[in-house]
Amino acid sequence: MRRAAQAGRPVVVKVGSSSLSTPGAGLNSEAVQRVVDQVEALWRAGHPTLLVTSGAVSAGLPVLGLDAPPSDLPGSQVAAAVGQSKLMESYGAAFGKRGRVTAQVLLTRDVLARRDQYLHSREALERMLDLGVVPIVNENDTVVVDELKLGDNDRLAAIVSHLVDAAMLIIMTDTPGLYSEDPRLQPQAELISAVRYTDDVLDELWSTSSKGVLGSGGVATKIAAARMAAWSGIPTVIAPASDLDVTVKAVAGEEVGTWIDPHHSRLPSRKLWIAFGLPARGRLTIDDGARKALVTNGSSLLAVGVTGAEGDFEPGDAVEIYDAAGSLVGKGLCRAGAAAIGTSTGPVVHRDDLVVLA
Questions:
Q1: Contact residues for 335 (Cβ-Cβ < 8 A; gap 6+)
Q2: Which H or E element spans position 317?
Q3: 184 vs 181: CA distance, rounded Å
Q4: Which residues contact 202 (CB under 8 A, 6 or more apart)?
Q5: Cα–Cα distances in Å, from 244 out to 35, 40, 96, 268?
Q6: What 3-state DSSP class applies to 112?
Q7: What's the Rg (C-alpha) of the chain?
Q8: Which residues lie below 8 Å from residue 136, measured CB to CB, with a gap of 6+?
């Protein structure tokens, strides 16, 4: 199942705050240097590499004299604004010692929601890689509000992987990979070496993590990100940041961390944007006949198969489509507004504007 990353293609590396900082003390310079060494090793191995990084808020806390993140939004935004410059300063200095130029890339959901800006973002990232520049990507926490948030940097890393057609997504964590159960509570828990993105074990881990059984949700976001990347045919490796050679091992196809095998083919760029770049403005529920038509027959969604509509969406907005059991079937651009769903005569969601995710 494992395989080496295709030579010359980009790699996306994601690292979280806990792997970069010491609680109450801000960034850990040695941890930052380890990440930089890992990214530089990939560049030297022939893989132009982007770094998706958390850590801005953590970096800002000691500068502001704080021991813990602020509980209010303006406070968190101030900490992020102060810390982002410290974070980039640390990365810039560490990469600079190796003669590598860095570029700060701050994204929000609204930037990626517009098709033209989505494409411009892709072109800018590709140009940076062509010039040998390391894009250091983070969500713009200083100005973002809930409705514009991408959700987490694991998700952001998956979207960036789509943008640059990455050969692999590597998520560096504080654990050796994904376990069958929480190893802190179940000593018999086993490390999952390799799994396909559709396997039931990921559903079980996602469910328990979302409910807080496996911690704060970190496992759930990583599984969600891996499944997002899978639709581009991009494998994900979830591996320990403490392993000094983890990225090189991962791209070589060696046994490290947890390998999540992707979809056998890549969705077209426009459908990737619909599925993962465009925020949903509403929700449609469909009957079993419509589900079969979408999943098995590749048909458009007709109004007759829609049993319910939620949200105040307009024609052209993205909607998520669920079956009667509440399972996600797909996402697409709706040709009718919420008020007109019941009277629509043509396709509600045409198959050219539909991504089936079931």
A1: 315, 316, 344, 346, 347, 348, 349, 350, 353
A2: none
A3: 9
A4: 195, 223, 226, 227, 260
A5: 8, 12, 20, 35
A6: helix
A7: 21
A8: 50, 51, 53, 88, 91, 102, 103, 104, 105
Contact assessment for residue 331 and residue 275, using Cβ atoms and an 8 Å cutoff:
yes
The amino acid that residue 82 corresponds to is V
Q: Which two tokens stand for residue 341?
A: 């769903």
Q: Strand pairing partners for 171?
A: 14, 238
- What does the alpha-carbon distance between residue 320 and residue 310 come to, in Å, rounded to a whole number? 10
Cα–Cα dist 35/32, whole Å: 5
3-state class of 312 per DSSP?
coil
Q: Could you identify the residue written with the tokens 């930089």? A: 36
Give the whole-angstrom CA distance, residue 336 versus residue 321: 14
What are 113-146's pLDDT values in tens digits?
A: 888 888 999 999 999 999 999 999 998 766 655 5
Closest CA to 247 of 104, 33, 47: 47
CB atoms within 10 A of CB 253: 16
Q: What is the pLDDT of residues 278-324, one digit of tens each?
A: 889 999 999 999 999 999 999 999 999 999 999 999 999 999 999 99
Q: Model confidence over 19-36: pLDDT tens digits? A: 898 877 788 999 999 999
Residue pair 101/92 in contact (Cβ under 8 Å)? The answer is no
DSSP 280: E
Q: Which two tokens stand for residue 85?
A: 């410059």
